[in-house]
Design a protein that fits this description.
The complex is a heterodimer of chains A (199) and B (462). In chain A, 52% of the residues lie in helices and 14% in strands. Chain A has 199 residues and is α/β, with parallel strands linked by helices. Chain A is globular, with a radius of gyration of 17 Å. The relative contact order of chain A is 0.21. The chains are: A alpha/beta (199), B mainly alpha (462). Chain A binds chain B through residues 44-47, 51, 62-69, 71-73, 75, 78, 81-82, and chain B through 29-31, 149, 313, 315, 413-414, 417, 419-421, 423-425, 427-430, 432-435.
């Protein structure tokens, strides 16, 4: 791709948003960032990766941490800020990439050619997807979805400028359940190209 | 009938004031809303609901707003008999903190703090153990005059930088510096916000603090340095690589951004210290000193004055305004007198037991919640205790409250602002400090210092 493009994907758990993001990055031939960015951060800061992964995309604990102005000692928030700095640097360097989660639509707000997308899905389809992916029964899948969505919502709403999943925050909101992952990728890709004026 | 109605109104006012106070504390802890907004809204609710609806007392509103005090001579200058205002919003504290903020911004901009850290590091030839001890002492001494957040902000950043170059682990040094900053803050009237509030509310001078809490802090500092040496220092002695490129270490003079500003800000700082140390003799109040320091800094800054003003942490000042209004609600409704009576009953009038309750209660509470609201709330309590309990000296209780609130905050990573800033600076540089690692060294040190403080207060005053 010639001009820089940044695709920020927010997603409900089990919607396939991660897979959609990965495929779009592959199709467009640009970098894909998810929790794997922690590898680079861990290497750069000389921190154990397992430690970073434990607190990735988690809301801060209500008791046990405090903020003083721009400083916080919440490990969850420090790791979030490390990731925000990482993606800001990548964007400022002019790199094109797809980023999943990390409040990227807010963190990179104002960047030229930022396209923000929120992937949702019908409840049943999401449960089915999680049951198949992690070999869980329905009850466990429901619990897992609820837990992850709750954490994502708290994490997002703590750091972002708007509410998680609020359509006004994104350029495109799409349900992956109607078309399936493959066709959703095509629709999103079409939207991106239209936005960039490439079609 | 009228009496019953009056009792009912008082009870409603007390319940409302207490609910607002508890809600304010919970909202501050959750950090959902910025703390200055929380205290301001709660302060406004106190004015409207407690003083307006329940008490229907305009005088309570005026007393708590306390604006008239600013226009009295005693607010700026005391000739011994005149005193500063002792109730409601403590404007003297707010004006003093504002003045010091402006001065500190000027010093930071000129590169004073970084220069001082680098100068001392060079003086000890960048050797880990002497560096470790020097930085602990410097942290305590600086925190006697400068807010602990600024002290730790610069000290932790330089420690991380030196640790990278000298190849040692900065975490033990940062943890020790944090503790010493909190300890140093307890030594003077201007070192820690609880002390400023205690000093201005109870009309104590800088010298009063220095000769009372200062002595306790001095003795404690010696023991704390020994303690941290045994906990960390011996390990540090074995650290530090042999193949260090000393030419890569920045020269202290490189930290100075502008020589003229550096000299001026150093002189202003020196004058501020002299004015504070002698204010009991000169009669100048801390509000006056804060104002003078701010005005001189701004005049000296010239065109940069606006930049300095913009950097002032107004949110903290607004936080104080709201907080004092909420505490004013507790004070006016008489709840704090009830708490004082409870402490009096538990202690059975025994001063030693009273001191022990105040110092440990303050220390434990400050380890988990902001020590500023706690200190502001406890001042009317100890005042009431001194009035109602025979043979109880207010000063004794004030020093117990000061040491408890100032030192208790050191025990946990959330206890004091310096702890948050220090651990945050470390984490941003890849040295994440969890609760376990923090408390392992800081909690025993806190217990040691609080115990020492209590023993010294027992021996000297009880």
């Amino acid at each position: 791709m010639g001009e820089q493009v940044i695709i920020a994907i927010g997603r409900e758990y089990g919607s396939g948003g991660h897979e959609i993001g990965e495929r779009i990055a592959k199709e467009l031939g640009i970098h894909f960032y998810d929790r794997s960015m922690l590898d680079e951060i861990a290497k750069d800061k000389d921190i154990e990766i397992e430690y970073l992964e434990k607190y990735d995309e988690k809301p801060r604990k209500l008791f046990g941490s405090r903020r003083v102005g721009a400083y916080t000692n919440s490990i969850e928030e420090i790791i979030a800020e490390m990731q925000f700095e990482y993606i800001r640097d990548k964007a400022d360097e002019g790199e094109s990439f797809v980023i999943v989660g990390r409040c990227a639509e807010s963190v990179l707000e104002g960047h030229k050619n930022l396209i923000s997308i929120f992937v949702t899905g019908h409840r049943d389809a999401r449960i089915k997807r999680i049951m198949n992916k992690y070999h869980l029964n329905e009850q466990d899948a429901v619990v897992k979805i609820k837990r992850h969505d709750k954490h994502r919502k708290q994490y997002h709403n703590r750091h972002a400028n708007g509410k998680w999943g609020d359509s006004r925050l994104y350029d495109l909101c799409i349900s992956s359940s109607d078309l399936g992952v493959e066709k959703t990728v095509n629709v999103v890709e079409f939207f991106i190209k239209e936005r960039l004026g490439e079609n | 009938m009228n009496k019953m109605k009056g009792d009912y109104e008082t009870m409603v006012a007390q319940v409302l004031a207490a609910v607002i106070f508890v809600a304010m504390f919970l909202l501050i802890v959750t950090e959902k809303i910025e703390r200055h907004i929380v205290t301001l809204v709660c302060g406004l609710l106190t004015m409207v609901l407690v003083f307006g609806v329940a008490m229907q007392s305009m005088s309570a509103v005026l007393e708590t707003l306390n604006l008239r005090s600013i226009f009295t001579v005693g607010f700026w200058y005391t000739s011994g008999s005149e005193g500063e205002s002792t109730a409601g919003i403590n404007w003297a504290t707010i004006i003093f903190i504002l003045g010091m903020m402006v001065m500190v911004e000027g010093m930071a901009k000129a590169g004073f703090f970084r220069w001082l850290c680098m100068r001392l590091a060079k003086m000890v030839n960048y050797k880990p153990v002497p560096l470790f001890i020097t930085f602990m002492v410097m942290s305590a001494v600086l925190a006697m005059f400068i807010d602990s957040i600024t002290v730790i902000l610069f000290l932790a950043a330089v420690t991380v930088e030196l640790a990278k170059l000298l190849k040692f682990n900065p975490v033990p040094m940062i943890l020790s510096e944090i503790f010493c900053a909190n300890l140093g803050g307890s030594a003077t009237m201007c070192g820690d916000p609880p002390n400023i509030i205690i000093g201005t509310s109870l009309e104590y001078s800088f010298a009063d603090f220095l000769t009372n809490t200062g002595v306790i802090a001095g003795i404690s500092l010696i023991l704390v340095v020994i303690y941290f040496y045994f906990v960390f220092g011996r390990k540090m002695a074995s650290q530090g690589a042999q193949d260090i490129d000393f030419s890569a270490i920045p020269e202290p003079k490189d930290a100075i951004t502008n020589k003229k500003d550096f000299i001026i800000s150093s002189i202003i700082f020196g004058c501020a210290v002299v004015m504070l140390v002698t204010h009991a003799q000169t009669g100048l109040t801390v509000a006056f000193i804060g104002t003078v320091v701010a005005v001189i800094t701004l005049l000296a800054a010239g065109k940069s004055a606006l930049d300095l003003l913009k950097k002032v942490d107004y949110k903290t000042l607004l936080f104080f305004v709201g907080l004092f209004a909420v505490v004013g609600g507790l004070e006016q409704t008489g709840i704090l007198e009830k708490i004082a009576a409870l402490i009096g009953d538990i202690s059975g009038g025994n001063l030693k037991l009273m001191v022990a309750i105040i110092i440990w209660l303050s220390a434990i509470a400050s380890a988990f919640v902001d020590n500023i609201p706690f200190a502001a709330t406890m001042i009317p309590v100890i005042k009431s205790l001194a009035v109602t309990q025979a043979g109880v000296d207010l000063e004794t209780l004030a020093w117990a409250l000061s040491m408890g609130t100032d030192i208790g905050g050191s025990a946990t990573p959330i206890g004091a602002s310096a702890n948050v800033v220090g651990t945050s600076v470390a984490a941003k540089n890849g040295h994440i400090i969890g609760w376990g690692e923090y408390c392992k060294s800081a909690a025993p040190a806190t217990i040691i210092v609080v115990t020492i403080s209590m023993i010294i207060i027992f021996i000297r005053y009880c």
